[in-house]
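Weekly modeling sync, notes
Attendees: S.R. (lead), two postdocs, one rotation student

Agenda item 3: backlog of single-chain predictions. S.R. asked that every request posted to the team notebook include the full sequence so nobody has to chase files. The rotation student volunteered to paste the first one in as an example of the format we agreed on. Action items at the bottom.

Example entry:
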Amino acid sequence: MGFKIVSSVLLLVLMQSGVLCARRFRGGRNSQPRRTPPSPTYRDRGDTTESFPLDFTAVEDNMDNFMTQVKNLAQSLYPCSAQKLDYDMKLNFLENTSVTCNDGSPAGYYLKESRGSRRWLIFLEGGWYCFNKENCDSRYETMRRLMSSSKWAQTKTGTGILSPLPEENPHWWNANMVFVPYCSSDVWSGASAKTEQSGYAFMGSLIIQEVVKDLLTKGLDNAKVLLLAGSSAGGTGVLLNVDHVAEQLEGLGHTGINVRGLADSGWFLDNKQYHYSDCVDAISCAPTEVIKRGIKYWGGLVPEKCRQAHEGEEWNCFFGYRVFPSIKSPVFIVQWLFDEAQLTVDNIQLTGQPVQEGQWRYIQNLGIELRNTLKDVPAMFAPACLSHEVITRNYWIDVQVKGTSLPRALHCWDRSLHDNSRNNKSPPKGCPVHLIDSCPWPHCNPTCPTIRDQFTGQEMNVIQFLMHMGFDVQKMAQQQGMDPSKLLGMLSSGS
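Predicted structure, as returned to the notebook:
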């Protein structure tokens, strides 16, 4: 017992030193400026300081591995005396050169290994899609980086959940980090080689399989946990592929690796557009129509159980609430209740003139629809914000739902899965994993990312933003049965 206490104190001291070391060198990185922190009024409603307590239950059964991690952590602090820390992930091309980007150039991934860690995070990049020869040609001219590896940089610096800094990434900073660039334009679903008719290869699903296969020779074979994460199209890609990855590893004999999913901003709805428009490109086309066309063009694959449930209409499996019931692996859903990409494909324009009353009702109903589709998801984080993507943003630690941040919620989810594996079915006390805002309009949560006026570049507070959106304070106060000045005060304080 005394040995464990000494070890715990030693690790605590080393981790504090690691944070100081990271802070000392943070200024040398080209990181984005941090978002203005939430108002003190909001923070007073929860814990004033959010803590991430050390949890040693995971190492009690394997002290040798625990001490190895302590040793590696101590060694990792040595570069504090150097002038520069190497935070970058390095580019690797796939060993199997027949699996390619859209234009036939080699697909690949960026890797930063973490010696001694048995946790791996594979992140799938997002970036819309194309669904026929014409708009794929246009995409190739304007967004070639998302269809070709010809100009990929040799290194990439991780941010948010990919950051190696404990202050920016409290729970996953010491994992082996893998960033997989999106160059297949198929929502990570395709398994088709380039043909004369299509003009492009669509191999998103195969790229994931080959990345996993390559990583097994670089330490993944010794992993305990593999988190397949992604944002936007990458988030949908997680829903489509997380069980494929689990089955792939099991088929190769790696049954001890716990595969999990983290889908950020990929839970789209197959709803009706605010007003219909011709299906010309990914942005103007209705969500269902673009996937119906795309899945044929890409030769898209979907999870087998979902395919059986929607035979002949496999496009349904690209929408989160339809595919989720068929997924066997644990998946954590992160979704803004007022997702900008969803509103874009629904033909709601949020720039220029204030929105009309009909648009305002449509936006509020979108939040209601999204809440309804998420109610049976056990692990989720859904703030009432107007935004898109979050887990790789450096402000991801600032956004809260009911006083809990996203890194904290993921930590609680991790603990709950570990406890379940030890036959402890009750969730950790004071550690919520089902977090969804109940307030009814965009940015009613004051920890939402900062909104800027597109024309002036000036930051807008909650009231200014809602007025810009066409929010009628008098009418809303009347509906709520309160004085308008009281409603304005509540909005200002984030109540």
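Discussion: group reviewed the output briefly. Residues 2-7, 17-61, 78-84 have pLDDT under 50 and may be disordered.
Action items: rotation student to repeat for the remaining queue; S.R. to check formatting next week.
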